[in-house]
Write a structure and sequence with these properties.
Order of helices and strands: EHHHEHH
Strand content: 5-15%
Number of domains: 1
CATH architecture: Orthogonal Bundle
CATH topology: 434 Repressor (Amino-terminal Domain)
Radius of gyration: 12 Å
Largest sheet: 2 strands, antiparallel
Number of strands: 2
Length: 92
């Protein structure tokens, strides 16, 4: 069974790990801050059914989402596909 999170969970961890702001992340993804907020609110399924709660002080990224969910979300919100995958993977 998959667990549901929002993309905001991944974004928060990425921003903390890379010491970046919402504005920085929006620019990296090719979005406005409003578009980033809408994308962050999108629910996404985690492929790891054993995933626990995210520790906001930890540097580890949340469990990987189902990859098939990312491209349609990027398309719907106008985000750069590869950069969204980089953020989800914890890379810059």
């Amino acid at each position: 069974m998959a667990t549901s999170r929002t993309l905001g969970d991944y974004f928060d961890t990425w921003k903390r790990n890379h010491v970046r702001s919402d504005t920085d992340l929006a620019a990296y993804l090719g979005l406005t801050p409003d578009q980033l907020a809408a994308l962050a609110a999108e629910p996404i399924e985690s492929a790891n059914a054993e995933a626990g709660a995210i520790n906001p002080d930890a540097g580890a990224m949340p469990p990987q989402p189902l990859r098939t969910d990312l491209d349609p979300l990027a398309d719907r919100h106008g985000a750069n596909h590869q950069r969204l995958r980089n953020v989800i993977d914890g890379r810059y």
